Known about the structure:
This protein is α/β, with parallel strands linked by helices and 328 residues long. It has 10 helices and 14 strands. The strands form 2 sheets. Strands 1-2-3-4-5-6-7 form a 7-stranded mixed beta sheet. Strand 10 and strand 11 (247-253) form a beta hairpin. The longest helix has 18 residues, at 8-25.
Amino acid sequence: MMKFEPSRRAVLASAGALAAATTFDLPAGPSPAQAQGAPVNQAPGFYRYKIGDVTLTAINDGFGKRPLEGFVKNAELADVKKAMEQAFLPADALNITFTTLAIESAGKLTLIDTGNGDSGAPTSGTWMANFKAAGFDPKNVSTVVFSHFHGDHINGFRLKDGSTVFPNAEVMVPAAEWAFWMDDAKMSAAPEGMKGAFAGVRRVFSPIAKDVKQFEGGKEILPGLTAIAAPGHTPGHTTFALSSGAGKLMIMSDTTNHPALFVRNPDWSAVFDMDGPQAAATRRKLLDMVSADKMQVAFYHAPFPATGYIAKAGNGFEMVPVQWSAAI
């Protein structure tokens, strides 16, 4: 019996006819959802998963759009566009997502970074709505741990009007990060384009400076949470290894920006990396480690829910996202 295999042209023609028929049958005017005034935003952006006995909740804070021109400091724009095309992403700009982590362990609620607050791009600032939708109350946060002091990580701690968002939280920061950004001499010597970042750090932390707890890399700062120095992106940039029972997670912070660019091309340096060569060396070292250990990872700037695994691929790596699950 002959096997019928339609040609590509026939398939495309049939698809076009179906689309035309479907379009013709649709009523004119707004969709039923729009007609009823239904919101056009997505469902709340939170996602829970377990590492051993610890429950983590990824909290999304929207995104900021960044033009590709000048985004990767040590790569040709054509190569960056090709990498975007290979990842089925737009060739003109990158939507950089923001995802923090809430950690529930032993009756305590810990945050790793706090998002943009009300100081980010118009497409960001969804963090608090998502945090509350996940069932959390800012008053119940016991500890806020910061990975580094870029605005998209710290501004959610203190709003523009000066109010503190987490009134009962202990604040923990990398000692090397504090030493750099709170140094008056470094602020005075900084290029004009960086002075705003220094001022932003002072705005967030100066009112509580005497109460901030500093930590060093290589130390367990909370039960099961060990700080790992990962400099380059900033002088005190820090990642965190979380362990519970047999479960392990590397919280990669800003070791990479979007994985489609910087996991696949670990030697590329984003415009936000203060020391590009050091950031690249740190990135490759950490990606090698989690790949070899088959360790689950979480990235601040990966597509939501921003967690998965790292596999070696040629001279670089590939992020393999976790499969979304309704079960925690």
